[in-house]
Amino acid sequence: MAYEQITFEVKDGIGIMTLNRPDKMNAFTGTMMSEMIDCFDRINKDDAVRAVIVTGAGDRAFCAGADLSAGAKTFDYEARDDRPDRQGATAADGSVNWSDPSVRDGGGLLTLKIFESLKPVIAAVNGAAVGIGVTMQLPMDIRIASTKARFGFVFARRGIVPEACSTYFLPRIVGIATATEWCFTGRVFDAKEAKERGLVTHLVEPEELMPTALKLAHEIADNTAPVSVALTRQMLWKLLGADHPMEAHKLDSRGVFARGRQADAKEGVVSFLEKRTPVYPNKVSEDMPSYFPWWDERKYS
Fold first, then answer.
1. Domain residues for 68?
2. Angle formed by the axes of helices 263-273 and 245-260, to 10°?
3. Is residue 1 one of the residues assigned to a domain?
4. Residue 301: band (very low, low, confident or very high) from pLDDT cuts 50, 70, 90
5. Residue 261 CB coordination number (10 Å)
């Protein structure tokens, strides 16, 4: 797929995905959604990509939310002639087939794709991030914000509800009290508050944003085993809903047993003893353990 609204480049093991509509403050569209999903699919299959940074073009916005150029019909997809992909759920008698694929939220399709990523994902938030501009960040692993960044879960102020699976992710990141305050009020808040309440991991001056993100990405890419990182990412995310530590113990045990038999474990120990940089031979595309993926297949219905 040729990209129109994002760019993607890989350098020294780091993939940089840039939301690229700076004249529209990188507002989110169906095209951007499709391109980002396609790009994450490519990233998962590309062993040359060890970590991913997502940022916005220009210095005004990471992503200013949904493109509102359709006016009052923005979220009424069946009334829009430019979104045939979102039509077909309503029957002639007015009843809605809630299981029809056209009902599904595009932001959620994207965040579910990010949730399943086998590579670490770092958000470098360079400016305004509201609506889908902030909810798409929630399944990303680390959020680094410029002091110029602003955030807002503004859905109630637009007459809709939170999307992109954010009611799952947000309380797990910042706690239910902060999540309810931000979502009920819909107010826009600054990067300092985002950092204080745990939404943002690092807060830096604008000129330090990408250098900080790249330094962190290289810390991962240059020193760790990609299969181990892929497994660890999914273990951490999937176990958020576990009801007993035994679930973690069972999964940890599989992981240590399986990885201990692979060449990466030998290289990790020998390189440490020899005081040299490791060169891990196992690949995410070929060498994931046989028990992966361990979770049940989940389908929308």
1. 6-220
2. 80
3. no
4. very low
5. 11
Question: Across the strands, what pairs with 55?
Answer: 18
Q: What is the CATH number of the domain that holds 275?
A: 1.10.12.10
Residue 263 lies in a domain: yes
On whether residue 301 sits in a domain, the answer given is yes
CA 137 – CA 89 distance, rounded (Å): 29
E strand or H helix that includes residue 264: helix 263-273
- Encoded tokens for 291: 């028990």
Residue tagged 């962190």 (tokens): 216
User: pLDDT of 215-251, one tens digit each?
Assistant: 999 999 999 999 999 999 999 999 998 999 999 999 9
Report the C-alpha gap between 217 and 221 in whole angstroms: 6
Three-state helix/strand/coil letters over 80-118: CCCCHHHCCCECCCCCECCCCHHHCCHHHHHHHHHHCCC
CB 222 within 8 A of CB 13: yes
**How would you label 40-58 residue by residue, b for 16+ Cβ within 10 Å and e otherwise?**
beebbeeeebbbbbbbbbb
pLDDT of 114 above 80: yes
Q: What's the structural domain count of the chain?
A: 2
Calpha distance 250→255 (Å, rounded): 9
| Distance, CA of 298 to chain centre | 18
Domain co-membership, 103 together with 249: no
Average pLDDT for residues 43-48, to the nearest whole number?
97
| Euclidean distance between CA atoms 251 and 38, whole angstroms | 30
Single out the residue in 188, 220, 252 at which a domain terminates: 220
Q: Are strands 14-19 and 6-11 parallel, antiparallel or unpaired?
A: antiparallel
CB 5 within 8 A of CB 27: no
180 and 90, same domain (yes or no): yes
User: What average pLDDT does the structure give for the chain?
Assistant: 93
User: Dmax over Cα atoms in the chain, in whole Å?
Assistant: 73
What is the phi/psi pair of residue 138, to 5°? Answer: -65, -40
CATH code where residue 160 lies:
3.90.226.10
